[in-house]
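Exercise 7.
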Amino acid sequence: MVSTKIAIIGFEKIGSAVLESLEINGDYLREKTGTDIEVGAILDIRDFSAHPKKHLFLNGIDDIVGNAEIFCVVETIGGIEPAYSFVKKCLNARKHVITANKELIATHGSELLLEAQKNGVNLMFEASVGGAAPVINTMTGALAANRIEKIEGILNGTTNFILSRMYSGGLTFEEALDEAVKRGYAEPQDPSEDIDGIDAKRKIAILASIASGRYLNLDFIPTRGISSVTKTDLLLAKMSNGTIKLIASAEIDDDGGSVASVSPMFVSNEDE
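Solution. The predicted structure, written as tokens, is:
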């Protein structure tokens, strides 16, 4: 049995769920992988002196970077900083890194992948697009020998729920958004990253960059969200045997250049 120690950076919703999942599924993971995964450190500046695992909590990234026993680091804090600085330090310390931080990968993914390659470690970001669906591993593994010319689809679940409720329930945008917030699908304080298409833009940038082998700058992706979509728009789409979805798309040319966009689009019922 191989034993591996990991560190978790950030201990809010995602970070605590990582620890919980490893504890609940430890026996299953050991059986399936032959590896005993142990959490050896958790980085979070808040006070966890009353936590059952209080001995694991650290206040500085250098305590993780300098710990030779830590094999892999799971980044869960989100955003650009300090995530970028922390991830880069870990890669330079020759530690593998796992992250679902789509903003970080869409903005600095190419640079961080080069850092990982230079140091002989892996930067893994499968969950940054598609959640549990292995989209990235499929593109880089099973489809690695194929030339991908176009990527198109629904990449944001929150907007898909809102548009579906407007379509099937006859709700206004505001009513559907309110329901999404109540169900926990949309951020109650600021849902703009979803409804303005920013989340989908980051995801299509990641996928297009992988498909083309070149970094696609987020600033070059025209993006329009769904806040301007009305009940009338959905009704007209229904009368035309279709609906409206927030579609992220990218086209890759033979030279590796890519053009991407995010916008509400009419989708025929025959295409769904």
